[in-house]
Structures
1.
Amino acid sequence: MKKTNVAIVGCGNISGIYFENLCKVFKNVTVKACADLDPERTAAKVEKYPDVQVATLEAILADPEIEIIVNLTTPQGHFPVAMQAIEAGKSVHNEKPVVLTRDEGKQLLAAATTKGVRVGSAPDTFMGGGIQTCRKLIDDGWIGDPIGAQAFMLCHGHESWHPDPEFYYKVGGGPMFDMGPYYVTALVSLLGPVKRVSGSTRITFPQRTITSAKKYGNKVDVDVPTHVTGIMDFASGAIGTITTSFDVWGSDTPCIEIFGTEGSLSVPDPNTFGGVPRVKRMGADAWSDLPLTHGYAENARGIGPADMAAAIENDRPHRANGELAYHVLDIMHAVHDSSDQGQRIELESTCERPAPLPAGLLKGMLD
């Protein structure tokens, strides 16, 4: 088995699980180097993972042995770092969202095509055992033909716990762009691409007070919608609704439900890899919990770039690919655009429904 050299750029909070899985779980990759603007962060990583080298971004880009860059910078850094990687002839896997704007997304994908490299993006949670089991249930006809879906991500924002919550209320943030990628990616992986979107948005609280310890009492002016509802017409004919909110104090709504002609499917939290799928089939008196058919039910962040490496070696499409990520970005923007313009938005983008993972993969292995 080929071991593909990757480098991690950005060593903040989310990087910990990437280091752990790419260094110790996935057998087809090796983390050769890491970089961050804060030298204390890289020092902490190499202390824990001594085989990883500290490097600058420039050194990583110049290293011919590094094939994939895992870009864990803040969202504003996703586009410039990814473009530098592509121009250096390297494939890149960005954290979510893949970039901030449609124009950036188009430029990124076009540059990758020209250079003959690949673009990938989080979330890769749809490759976990929970949603892959749901994919198999749908594909095997357990609920008949899908006719509709609903998704909810409802909370009261991040200022009570996050040490630096300001970004979540600025351009590029908000509940749709922060958490929407998990939900929309899961829906597209289960139901296929979307062709038309409508939406409504609002800002409920124009100013937020931080109550987490680091910046307790600081005020944040809210610049983006914090309660967002969208309707998605899927190319398959299914109709989906999604609500993402930082304005809700409590809710008992499910994360995702899929409705079919012969039953309903409750999908686990798309921000995790596992969970318990539940089905209520036509004529049944109650919901039934179903066992997982696939592995990677623990926190398997990093499976996306590992799958990219396997796909390059085996000459197949990778699952958490740039076309999927751009389509998800387009959908999220379209929900906001629809609210701003007061009309439905016909999407220009589309994507292939990513292939399901085979059942029975050994831990650390990909097809």
2.
Amino acid sequence: MATMVAVSDFHIHDDSKLEMIKKFVQGMYALKPDILIYLGDVGDPWEETWDVIRATQSWKELSELNRRRRGEGLTNIWVNRNHDYSARRKYLPGAWMKSEYRAEGLLFKHGWEFDWIWNGFDFIWNVPLFPGISRVAYWLSSRFPRFSIRVWSRLRTLPCFKKETPYQTKARGAREDWNRHVGLIHLRAMDYAQRTKVRLVIGHTHCPMVYADLLADDGDMTDSFSFLYIQDGKWELRTLETS
């Protein structure tokens, strides 16, 4: 069986995470998984334009990793979603872009699909009753990138967007404090996995967790520096050593 790594939520828009990116790249050279799956939000065009993002050394490090891996016959997959929705296939050289990915009985999704903030409330998990904000946000970020960046910079000054408030205690306290937002996403994801009879892997929440053999959340490369390692069909959460 293929060895796989699922990793998400780098949110690259500058080189502030460059040292972490370099350690991740070296870690992937050492692990050498058969399939490397980026589960969304690799770049963050809500913070900067794609031209700026792709010019960063951080983005170049990932691109070089993908090129070298592809030259060795290894596979790189980019499941782009809410923050990097406006990305184009050529933006991350060496990686195949997909909306979701299936391999060896596992289904890889970003995870935004199960987030009511993005997709609205629903009746039986996947039948929307109220629209989310995704269509508006995607349209703005695609058509008016500079304007959407200015809107986001203003929104994140509001109390509900500040990471030190209870509204966004995601990764750092998630294992002990299973908050309402992340909890609902995980419940909906588990329900989906049970109904569709798949083993599901997601990102998006910045909350690394594993639920038996049903659902795995790989966490993020922003707060928890975690990724999911899969070997012989068994998954394991690992943390990038940043010290």
3.
Amino acid sequence: MQTRTLGNSDLSITPLGFGAWAVGGEWKFGWGPQSDNDSIAAIHRALELGLNWIDTAAVYGLGHSEEVVRKALADWKGARPHVFTKCGMLWDDQGTIDYSLRADSIRREVEASLRRLGVEAIDLYQIHWTADELEETLEGWTEMAKLKEEGKLRWIGVSNASSEEMEAMSKIAPITSLQPPYSLVKRDVENDQLTWCGAHGVGTIVYSPMGSGLLTGAMTKERVANLPEGDWRRNSPLFQEPKLTENLALAERLKSVGARHGRTAAEAALAWVLRKPEVTGAIVGARNASQVDGLIHGGDLKLSPEEIAEIEG
């Protein structure tokens, strides 16, 4: 699988990376019950098929996702993948979520993630969500730059940031990458953040490129109606009418185009995202090994302009 350089870093990453949000299991923003054995098998299968990076976050499963990643890597016999994680979302003993980008909080989070992941340095450390006040975001970014100088972080980036925030942050320390949501059902970053990143040499790894499952070709109205109580998608407007019908029609067009290439709707959705030169890589989540098999060729499928127009309707 071909690789691409991520922003200003020395990281050569595959077009697809394994996303470990769902493997965190049940919590406020979780995807419902999840087997750790299935999670580890999915990670191993992704690595067997050539993916060379894993994206997680401290808050996924309230620390559990990072622990699952550590277990998966402890049993992995091949080349070690790059490990990316995030900071800024905190939790208490009751599972209540809070947010902080204060310097002392960032430093505590780094130490905790290093322990949970079982690594000496984190390959890419990202602000999960910027703060309401720019001053707090810049305080956290300054501390991350210090931790990078200390060798605990190899590269630093941000998720869910505006171009204005990135402009201010880049005056303190270079931004390696942005992680925004981007898919056929969520395109608002195309003419702002992606353009800014392309102009400033900032890498982009996009999340939810398959619309959190909407664009896989496997989602139906019946399946949406039966999502478990702990699945955050039950409350998402994208999974409710009138958007649900529109989004499932998109998935049918993806299925049709993908089938011509012997590919799945999910792989066509990934190819659509990766068509943009500003997109360095896309995060794909899988909850078991078989799901990985239906995604892997999205990184090398090339869509024609006519197929892109057909998909977009």
